[in-house]
Structure formats: C-alpha cells, structure tokens
Amino acid sequence: MSHDAKSPAQAHAHPTGATYLKVAVILTVITIVEVWAYYIPALVASPLFNPSLIIMSAAKFAIVVLFYMHLKYDHKLFKALFTGPLIIAGATILALLFLFAKISL
Amino acid sequence: MASHAIAGHDDGHAHTHHTTTGLDNRKIAIWAFIGSECMLFASLISTYLIYKGKSLVGPYPHTEYTDAAGKVFPAILDIPVTSASTFVLLMSSLAMVLALQAVQLKGTPLPANAGWWTRAQRSSQLWLGMTALLGATFLGFQAYEFTAFVREGLTIKTNLFGSTFFTLTGFHGAHVTVGVLWLMSLLWIDRTRGLGPKDELVVDIAALYWHFVDVVWIVIFTLIYLIQ
User: Fold this and answer.
1) ipTM score here?
2) What pLDDT, in 10s, does the model give residues B80-126?
3) Per the domain annotation, does A38 fall within a domain?
4) Of B68, B126, B145, B189, which has fewest CB within 10 angstroms of its CB?
5) Across the strands, what pairs with B65?
C-alpha cells in the first residue's frame, strides 16, 4: 500500500495551537449546555432531551477524534482501523438494546 | 533497514523503518488497540444500559429511594462534581495535544518577539506535566465519588446499578491510571534526555491513548450521568 494520496499542502495542514484552543472552547461550551439542560425540568421532560444529549455527546466525540487525535488529517488506514470497530461497537450496543427491549421501533 | 517510510501523518517529521504499508507499525498497532478498546467499552456500556432501571433496591442514580425501614436515600449521582471532573479531563486533552505540538516544534528557532504563549507552546515538559496532573486530578475526583457512594450505601454488590456503574467507571479509571503512569514516564524521559521531533511518534501514540480515554468519558458522562 502506498502513502495516502494527499497534496503536500494537505499533508502539512496540521492544526495550530490556536485551533486546539478553539476546539477546547467548543468542547467546554457543549459540556456547559449539556449540564445546563440537565437542570431544566421542562427540558428533561421533553422527548427531545435524550436525543439532544446524544447528539451533543457525539459531536464532542467527533471533534476530539478529528482534531485532537488528528484523524481528519491522518492516513485512511488509521481511519478504517478506528471507524470499523466503532461501527461494530455501536451496532452491538443497538442490537443488545433491541434484544433486551430497552428500545423499540 | 532504516528508510523514509513515514509514521502516518505524511508530514515527513518522523522517519522510521520501512514497512509494506509505508506506515509505522507502532502507530497501526495503537489504532488497532484503540479499535479493540471501543468494543470493550461498548460491552460495558451495553451492560449498564440493559440493567438500567432494573435495580430492586436503592440507592438509585437519579431518583430518591426509601427502604423498608423508612431510611431515605437521595439520588446518588453528584452532577456538579462529575461536571468538574469532565471539564478537567477535557482540558487534559488540550494539554496533551499541546505537549505533542511542543515536541514537534522543539529545536525550531523562536521568533525574536516571541511572547509568553509562544514560549509556553515550546515546553513539552510543561504540557506533559500538566496532562499528568489533570489526569491525576480526575482520578482524585473519581476516588472522592466512589468513597462518597460507598458511604451513602452504594457498593458494587448493592444492586444492578452499583455493579454496572462501578465496573464501567472502574475500568475507565484504570485506563486513566495507566495513562497517567505513561505520561509520567514520558515526562521523566523528557527531563533526563529531552524529547524532540525524533520522538514525535512515541508521544503521538501516548496522546492517541489519552484522547481515547477522554472520548470514552464523553460517552460515559452523557449516558450514565445526564440521561435519566
């Protein structure tokens, strides 16, 4: 297998310290919103509460993986090594939750 | 044997042994390990979710419980404390990525008008030490939480919530502990012989592990602590 087919400009497009700080601010803001929502009874009672929390958590997960773990800039083999098992892991959780009737269609 | 195969970022910084993939085997190994860890934590999270709400006796995570003797157990999860520990772990990821950047930049000349932030960004010891300290602080929060739970009547044997909660968060805490020890060993190497661009991959592998521990906590924090 050859190296990833990236142009030299793309290959050197690493985030700077300022980007890392911005990512940290975004992660902090999302966490504050999550915890704030937890203390609003009307929001907790809403059917959108759990999906919203899962979406915010998934966003934080993706931001850390893409920017701090550099997967956005890394070789496709590394992307495959991470996303493959991650998809299997997610599918396993969903399958088990269906199997034990914790969620239904 | 040594050639110009590249460690993975295709950035030409880290030269290593030739491999058939053109990628360093150590970096492939850490990503494969992280992939396997995804499935380990998926099994633990699945177990927690399946048994969620099935405890016959309290204490419960989000609701009050009164036992047969009339003793009242308040909801046991302490969201403010856990929010603080979550923030600490998120900041440790920032410190870790800055440590990697500092190692990559070591040896490059500083601009004449470099301010304190530019200088701080070159200090790998500062950021490695900061990451280890924040990781240890997270463990301190977890130790406080566990002892508080035991004092309030929740142990790993009390109910299904206790069993699955302590197993999942305990496994995560063990991973953080390994990460802190790993970071301290890197800090010791940095203090004795100095880490530089040639060591980028060694620090990158530790960083990938550390960030993975962080993303696992992001999931745990939402699924266990916030979703009721």
Assistant:
1) 0.85
2) 999 999 999 999 999 999 999 999 988 888 887 878 888 888 889 99
3) yes
4) B68
5) B73
Q: Is CATH 1.20.120.80 correct for B58-226?
A: yes
d(CA B223, CA B214): 14
Domain of A26 in residue numbering reads as: 15-72
Strand partners, B17: B2
Q: pLDDT digit string (tens) for A24-49?
A: 999 999 999 999 999 999 988 889 99
Distance from CA of B117 to the nearest CA of A (A): 10
Q: Give the pairing of strands B15-17 and B2-6.
A: antiparallel
B9 touches chain A (CB under 8 A): yes
H or E segment at A16? none
| Residue B169 to residues A42, B78, B213, B217, Cα–Cα distance (Å) | 29, 14, 11, 9
Residues of B in contact with A37 (CB under 8 A): 226
Q: Which residue of A has its CA nearest to B99?
A: A17
